[in-house]
Batch of 4 targets.
Target 1
Amino acid sequence: MIETTEHDDIAVLRMDHGPVNALDLELLTALPRVLDQVADARAVVLTGIGRSFSAGVDLKRIADGGAEYVAEFLPALSVAALALFEHRRPVVGAVNGHALAGGCVLAAACDLRLMSGGTVGLTELAAGVPFPTVPLEIMRHAVGPAAERLVLAAHRLDPAQAVEIGLVHETVAPDALLPTALDRAVHLAAAPPEVYALAKSQLRRPARERIDVGTPLDEEEVLRIWSAPALHAKLRDYLDSLAT
């Protein structure tokens, strides 16, 4: 599900979960656990296997699992994204293909983001689902004012467009993606670990404060909408439309 290898004390995490690395309860539960296991690595590189970094939430599982599944899934999504966002060591996202919806959020949670192909964007509103607080604030941290357009218009950007708004820092040829990500990780890891961790915490503090305020305000409504049977019927229609 998440393959872990080591390159000169840099942990490389490869999501390998179905054809598009869709985010389900199992993958989201695994990510914080794996991050804990590599906590002493100098840095982390997160990438995907296949043509997608992650195409986002497994909407079929949401529609089929109903309210009971959603009640477990949404907290797991927030915990996984926050674990990546607040990991104390450098985290480089090597976006090897499509990074959509929740996949875009995972990419945005990385300190540095490289992309070699595919599209990236937030497609939640196109599918009719709202944002939990944690993913929304991670996106606001990553791209600032551009987050509003990404969220409300559900745009999908190519790598060059993503660079323009700061969602991606560099575009890289596919065969150079992992070597470049490792090189960037080594560079970030040159700082003393405790200094890097403090600087990262300081930079992320406004996002964390907004999360702490927004979560109790919004999560009940987010859960209600995600759990509604009418939404699950619409998700099935949405998935059928993508298949035609």
Note: The longest helix spans residues 193-227.
Target 2
Amino acid sequence: MHIDIDHITKYSFSNPTKMVIQTLRLTPQSNSVQNILSWDINVDCDARLNPFYDAYGNLCHILSIEEPVQEFSIEVIGSVDTYLTSGVITDVDANFPLAVYKRFTSLACFSPELKEFAFAAASEKDDLGKAHQLLGAIYETMRFDTMTTNSQTDAVQAFAAKSGVCQDYAHIFIACSRLLGLPSRYVSGHLLRQDGANLQEASHAWAETHINGLGWVAFDPANGICADEHYVKVAVGLDYRDAAPIAGSRYGGGTETLSVGLNVRKAGLQFQSQSQ
């Protein structure tokens, strides 16, 4: 499937900034489930973009703006071919041993209640069966709600509320998978929605769990399915903080206003740029 993406993040400040430094994890890479046809990052001010690979193998950029600005935008425009693999990623990951992805973090953490849930949900003997049971149980237990959590909410808090967004679903799935002894990691990226909602307010998040004999398998607990050709993978990490699309700091600027626009569409449909 050919997917086109236009993703714009706009910042405005009450006073001009003195300096802005950000880490951008906005650039996907070609692998066994996708082929990047074109990809550009555009910043509408005098800025420097220095590429590098982080410890997880993500292609990142350091954005630095050293002149005062009161507003600026970061726009990503790209085209990707994706493939149907039933969620299985066959690429060899040599960045870390699998044991690293069994580590709990401040966001992918657990409580006695979450531990009880994980073991009650996964009764199958084989790892793939456990992961699918866990996927279904989280999808049935949680309620999607954009108002109950934020980017700092951890898996325990989201599970206690029984509601959250895709980031929270992913953290819960990752924490439960690790409780079951399954290496699991966080994935940030884009989803071509099948309900025709091309214009979206944010990127998507899901999880990958390593299954012996298969490799990494992508699970999207927010939708209760394995990732398919509608997904574009951008970055991975132990949790959201390792794969956040944009993270950084600024000096000066006063109060900040942030807006995000995202257009994910199948090739052949009219492209509506968020920058217009």
Note: The domain at 2-82+245-266 is CATH 2.60.40.2250 (Immunoglobulin-like).
Target 3
Amino acid sequence: MDILTIENVRKAYHSHVALDSVSFSVKKGTIFGLLGPNGAGKTTLIRIITNITKADQGAVYLDNELLSIHHPRDIGYMPEERGLYKKMKVADQLMYLAQLKGLSHDEAKASIKMWFDRLQMAGWWNKKIEELSKGMQQKVQFVATVAHKPKLLILDEPFTGLDPVNADLLKDEIYQLHKEGVSIVFSTHRMEQVEEICDDIVLINKGNILLNDSVSSVRTQFKENIFTLTTDVPAQNWDLIPGFESVEEQGFSRTFKVGEGHHSNQLLGYLLDKGIKIQSFHEVLPGLNEIFIKLVKTESNHAHE
């Protein structure tokens, strides 16, 4: 079952095509990574999903219903840029925004107070936004995003401006919402966060989809037959056999690439025959950052051919 379905969505601004027949879906109850370099079309897509702007062609479905003007009540959107009124008090602003999303006065107050407790925001009720640090403002914006209990959360660079302690606090709350069944679309440039947090990803570049799969499948798809091996003998004391290329050597560990037509078991057998004990052995899969850069560069090169 999908919470969000994008079907052949196209959006152009004059001669610039921001999205070119984009299609993908987000499974219900997952954390989904929406990735792409600056200008890829991510923000345009988010604006279409949240009904801020309309697609020229295509359709968007939320929980199997064609997107309508009523659906923003089911969505929580936390933009990268802060959309808070600096002169307003924190409580007044959050109460106003929560009631806009359909909560009663009492429901809004109870939800906001609960989130203040969870995010260690006691004492902020009557502060003005301009009195808060960037990190504190980010936490206020998060409360504005989740107070109305949306079924779909869209978080655009949610950890911007947060110190490590508050970033971990917010991350824990995102995981908790995930456990409670909230579906989350997570947009960021920080690939290590995507690897840690996301189940599935889509990579958009220049309005087109380059990748759409699970994080684990993507990393496996781009593997390059590179392994790391640790033995009880310093790496410099034994040589690789033909068909194996050394990548890095450090202490008792060696990282190597297996050539075409060869298998890592050949090297393991060779070492065991020599009486060398193997302490650990694992395949080195590429990180999403490496894959991201490779794909975007390849796409850019093809565009200039």
Note: The chain has two domains: 2-214, 224-283.
Target 4
Amino acid sequence: MSLLEIENLSVHYGGIEALKNISFKVEAGEIVTLIGANGAGKSTTLKSISGLVSASGGTIRHNGETISGLDSQKIVERGIVLVPEGRKVFSNLSVLENLKIGAYLRQDKPGIAEDIERMYDLFPRLKERHWQMAGTLSGGEQQMLAVGRALMARPQILMMDEPSLGLAPLIVRDIFSIIRKINEQGTTVLLIEQNANAALKIADRGYVLVTGEVKLSGTGKVLLNDKSVQDAYLGTSAH
């Protein structure tokens, strides 16, 4: 039984079919990435799993139980948490307040305090700036805060929507090494990313989405070396 299983998922926006019967699995402990061009349906997929977008067909299962149709709070309670595109930090609250909001469904005060310290270990920059308003942080720091806030919910599956978008190459490298570290500490990661090269390098498995359909799948390594993937998404930088 897979940790997360998507079967024949379809989503319509008005008359437009954003997802066309896509199927894929995420096993416990993996990093799985969905890659594809803008408008391929990557964000829609994560929003459907999160309960933010209603599916018009298909099934989403978590630990063998159907979760399609549950509201987003119930999805978070089950341990599936989304780091949204564009970070969406609460800009007029401090770093520490943003982290606490991530734990809003939890009652265990000692555990929350422990996890805040864990976030500070993972992201030393956040510790230095714990009092600072989130809106005044750099883009990279806001991304770290968005990831830290999501981790405060103690997710089983951390879903990340374009975590490297708009960040300087050096910061992108940091973000990807953090994703790897989070995974090594036991969190399963489902990642969508336009930086296909960076994503496939850390992914156990990947799926290529083209206009709402899964066209290719394989291990990160296999897809990195696939000629059609190189031509479409990696340019010559893969060599």
Note: The chain has ten helices and ten strands.
